[in-house]
Amino acid sequence: MLHIARMLSVRKFCICAGMRGEIAQMTDWENIRYFLAVGRIGTLSGAARALKVDHATVSRRLAALEAALQVRLVDRLPRSCRLTAIGSEIFEQAVQMEAGALAIARRAQAAHTPLVGKVVLSAPPVLVAHLLARHLARFRDDFPDIRISLVAQAQQVSLSRREADVALRLVQPQETDSVVRKVGTMAFGLYARRDYAHLGTPDLWQFIAYDQSLGDMPQQKWLLEIANGRPIACELSDISGHLIAAQAGAGIAGLPCFLADADPDLVRVDDAGLPFSREIWILVHRDLRKTPAVRAVIDFVVALIRREGNLAG
């Protein structure tokens, strides 16, 4: 079905672009897919990483498309790629073509046998590692013919491009083609090891923070505001690392309460800072929202979050 969708999309693309019949026969959907990646990311190397191929493959595919269409689509600059005027027009047509192909695939998926198939669930790493993964066995017992592909991703993914079927996010989604709802709130607090050397002396506290590449994260800004010039003991790029560092006595960490309250070696400390939390949102593409397997995964995830006292709300 997806193969048919691709062929239909290629035909649509060639008609929209006004290409001659012989050129239409030469146009390959895969070449267009590579062109889309270059147009979105702006570099050959970035497109190669996104597509999980080498730089030369992207360059070859792009050159093949330009040869088939007999136009230059991209100006190759020393550090980037810039769409030409005609390249920008064809890029917009290609985006529409991609959307049509993916819509066909989603419609086909929605028609699958009930409660059978694979569902890709994208979620923040903290929820994958410390909530969802712990309950996969129970889900498997209840739905033995559904395979969850659980992907821990801090960055947002595109449901329209089928990078996932269902997604959990800590910011309110803005996609207009998805069904979105708030399912919980992740409260944060300050935590330290029970025998942390400076537990009773806040002026001597040292903090566990994110590295500079994650400086825009809301919980990083919250933590640094509380630290207010007090030393940063160490920097780690993920919340699981913060938990381990706090367990080892490295300093004060800002952790999700559902995670830290369950650890007997940690104690919550009060620095009179402002309360902080992140909203938890779930979204699914409109075309898949009634698919039985997808519906089962959504219900399972929502029930888990609501059953976890520190996430409900």
Reconstruct the topology from this structure.
Elements: H1 2-17, H2 21-26, H3 29-41, H4 44-51, H5 55-69, E1 74-76, E2 81-83, H6 85-110, E3 117-123, H7 125-132, H8 136-142, E4 146-152, E5 166-169, E6 178-193, E7 207-209, H9 218-227, E8 232-235, H10 239-247, E9 252-256, H11 257-260, E10 266-269, E11 276-285, H12 292-307
Parallel strand pairs: 3-4, 3-5, 7-8, 7-9
Antiparallel strand pairs: 1-2, 5-11, 6-9, 6-10, 6-11
Helix pairs in contact: 1-6, 3-4, 3-5, 3-6, 4-5
Quick summary:
The protein has 313 residues and is an alpha/beta fold. The protein contains 12 helices and 11 strands.
* Number of structural domains: 2
SS strand fraction: 15-25%
* Number of alpha- plus pi-helical segments: 12
Helix content: 40-55%
Question: Quick one: CATH class of the largest domain?
Answer: Alpha Beta
- In one word, what is the shape? globular
Backbone structural class: alpha/beta
Based on DSSP secondary structure assignment, what is the total number of beta strands?
Answer: 11
Supply the CATH architecture of the largest domain.
Answer: 3-Layer(aba) Sandwich
- Enumerate the spans where pLDDT stays under 50 for 5 or more consecutive residues: 1-26
